[in-house]
Amino acid sequence: MRGRSLKTRLLTTGSIVLILALGLTGVGLTILFERHVERRVSLELDTYITQIASRLSFSSTGLPRLGGKLADPRFEKIYSGLYWQINNETAGRAEHSRSLWDTRLSLPNDSPSLGKVHAHTINGPQNTVLLVHERRLRFKSPKGGQVARLIVAIDMTELDKMSADFTAEVAIALFGLGVFLLLAGWMQILIGLGPLSLIQKSIALIRSGAASRMNANLPKEVAPLVVEVNNLLAAQEKAILKAKHRAGDLAHGFKTPLTALRSDIRRLRSKGEHELANDLDATSMLMQRQIDRELTKARIRDLQNMPSMKIRPVIDSIIATVARTPDGEKKQFQIDCRCHIEIKVDSDDLTDILGNLIENAVKHATKKVLVRVRCTDQLIKVDVEDDGEGIESSLLDRVQKRGVRLDRSIAGSGLGLAIVSDILDIYGETLALDRSPLGGLKAHFQISLFANK
Questions:
Q1: Is 406's pLDDT higher than 70?
Q2: pLDDT above 70: residue 294
Q3: What own/partner pairs with CB < 8 Å and gap ≥ 24 does 190-196 have?
Q4: Do the beta carbons of residue 370 and residue 385 sit within 8 Å?
Q5: pLDDT at 29
Q6: Mean of the per-residue pLDDT values of the chain
Q7: Collapsed DSSP state (helix, strand, coil) of residue 322
Q8: Phi, psi (5° rounding) for residue 27?
Q9: C-beta neighbour count of 347 within 10 angstroms
């Protein structure tokens, strides 16, 4: 049961308990009914004995006679299942109901006390089993006192049939009750676990940036959980804010040395030392990119208050910058952007993604770099392609690892594609690499128009 949902576990447990309870109820009701029927039949048999005793008389020879017929017509119907018999122990004579016809009731060979009713189970006519009540009484007669056994018997098949009919009806009733209780239990579980769904929705809103705190308007049983989660969110925001400030201080501390380094690079170029200047320029760019990436990770993203933006101006700005670099001024850029919908995404994130992919394409392209943008109802899809030599299929996964450079002849840090993958991972997306129809590498990614982080 460990892998099942909470609803399933509760319903399964409740169903087992309900089945056991209804089963025990059915057995208990059947037993009570059988006891009630036995008491009712016993009372009826005792009543017949009383009626026989009140009408009993004896002939001069000691033959017992019953004055008139008993009210129940079954005593007159042959083998009806209801019988009486009178045994005169004093005269050794007997009399019986017409329903016994040519058979007699054989009682145990005992001598019950006078006046007390005794019950037996004996074999009856036609292989039946009879419930017998008997009573020994002393009567006055012309020949003096007579002791007689008054016997009334009923076929237990009728009692068994009544019990079976009752059991069947109770089973149907309990089945209907069980179905109703299961449905009621399922509704109770749905209503009872409803707050968990609200908690899930609240967390989803927080994750998407539509809310900053969980809804506290929940039942008191889960309210402490909501309070603790909200306190955790507050502590996390405070920690992130501190990290942002520390990252800002770090970036500010590196700003002056990087500015001085770029000045030295310009002086080296002016002296004709281009190779050394390019190496230092690549190193400074690497340092700046790493600082920017750490700042990106430390940023507090607030999608609820984040303004929407279009992707085309970002692409134009990046290409305008890259086109002024030594590698970019030799390349032809083609932009195929058929998406003019505003997307709710962090501008620095989008700049980092597109900047790294376009710079990577420029470094490896022969002449041409293509940026293609498409939109669907929910996604913005971007392809960045070049016409360079491309990458073998077996190496596509490797180049996304941090610090991996397949071509050491080209300046770079090996962090570009890894940084792109890191940022896309924050948005729940991945970077896909493939061979471009232009001959080089095709980098593809997509982001939800609502940027559900």
A1: no
A2: no
A3: 190/7, 193/6, 193/7, 193/10, 195/219, 195/221, 195/222, 196/6, 196/222
A4: yes
A5: 92
A6: 80
A7: helix
A8: -65, -45
A9: 12
